[in-house]
Design goal:
Elements: H1 3-9, H2 12-30, E1 34-37, H3 42-55, E2 64-67, H4 74-87, E3 91-94, H5 97-101, H6 106-129, E4 133-135, E5 152-155, E6 183-186, H7 194-203, E7 215-222, E8 225-228, E9 244-249, E10 260-263, H8 269-278, H9 288-292, H10 296-303
Parallel strand pairs: 1-2, 1-4, 2-3, 4-6
Antiparallel strand pairs: 5-6, 7-8, 7-9, 8-10, 9-10
Helix pairs in contact: 2-3, 7-8
Length: 306
């Protein structure tokens, strides 16, 4: 049987897996000092599992890096630590301590908080580690600015991104050459969709963070969404807001004060897959910060955000 015939027999998920593994190996082969960003969300968890498959039986030749905004869901942090320990990854955690000391938070500081605790923190962590190839789990279908990304995305000396300067990637031929001080952000899941992530996790029996599955949780309605009160001591209620318990889950995870859950009864992966097939809303509608400023994500990306 020819290679072409073998490829034709691969399932859709098999082809996506093979492509991602090829990208991971290509990136590592060209890297001097690679790292993989790990938020403990569904995409980065699937990507980390792909890395385990790509370099088996050896450990993946890079650490996981988590940029802690200091407003992460507590259960996500617990899942992050357990995942790294059980799968033998070195886990690096970085937070912008200047922003933490200044008390920056999503309630009062909005975009300034995101810039300082997400974008600046990421750039500081990458500079401190001296990483030249940075793997991440972003997908093109997530948001319109993501769709402009190449698989191997060149960043300048300040980690800035210019979509007009991206290199062509015809026939999966990747240009990995870098001038001094520049780096690559590499996205092996570029061609995956949200449904592909759920189906792959189901097919490979991948454990995901518990917030992706419905459970009774304390919420408050805000900005058209349901905010789960992850840390009551730090929650700031507005006049007229009332805390109630609802059965909710998340399709995307970010800082808990600005990430909305959805009412759901889907408490396992098969029911999540079924529910996702029937909804007509965007995955990122749960990111309240995105909806507040439609140009925010692209601006943050140009400034160095992942």
């Amino acid at each position: 049987m020819t290679n072409g015939q073998n490829a034709a027999r691969l399932s859709h998920l098999d082809r996506l897996e093979a492509e991602a593994i090829h990208i991971l190996r290509e990136g590592v082969a060209e890297a001097r000092n690679p790292v993989m960003l790990f938020s403990a969300g569904k995409d980065s968890t699937v990507l980390a599992h792909l890395a385990l498959r790509a370099f088996h039986p050896s450990r993946p030749p890079f650490p996981l890096l988590h940029v802690d905004s200091t407003w992460e869901f507590q259960s996500v942090l617990a899942f992050r630590d357990t995942f790294a320990r059980e799968h033998g990854f070195d886990l690096l955690v970085y937070a912008n301590e200047t922003g933490r000391a200044a008390g920056l938070n999503p309630f009062d500081h909005g975009d300034a908080y995101t810039s300082t605790m997400r974008t600046d923190a990421l750039k500081q962590a990458l500079d401190r580690g001296g990483y030249d190839v940075v793997f991440g789990g972003a997908r093109r279908d997530e948001e319109k600015s993501r769709a402009k990304e190449r698989v191997f995305s060149v960043r300048d000396e300040r980690h800035g991104w210019d979509p007009r300067q991206q290199r062509p990637e015809l026939w999966q031929l990747f240009n990995t050459r870098l001038a001094n001080g520049r780096s690559l952000r590499v996205f092996p899941l570029s061609n995956w969709t949200e449904m592909d992530i759920w189906l792959y996790a189901l097919a490979r029996n991948i454990e995901l963070a518990p917030l992706y599955f419905a459970a009774p949780r304390p919420v408050v309605e805000r900005g058209g969404g349901l905010i789960v009160i992850d840390d009551p001591a730090r929650m700031t209620l507005r006049p007229g807001e009332t805390v109630v318990t609802r059965s909710v889950r998340f399709r995307t995870l970010g800082c808990w004060p600005v990430t909305a859950g959805v009412v759901s009864g889907a408490d396992d992966l098969p029911s999540v897959v079924h529910e996702t097939l029937t909804v007509r809303t965007s995955e990122r509608q749960g990111r309240i910060a995105d909806s507040a400023d439609a140009g925010s994500l692209e601006r943050q990306k140009r400034e160095g955000y992942f």
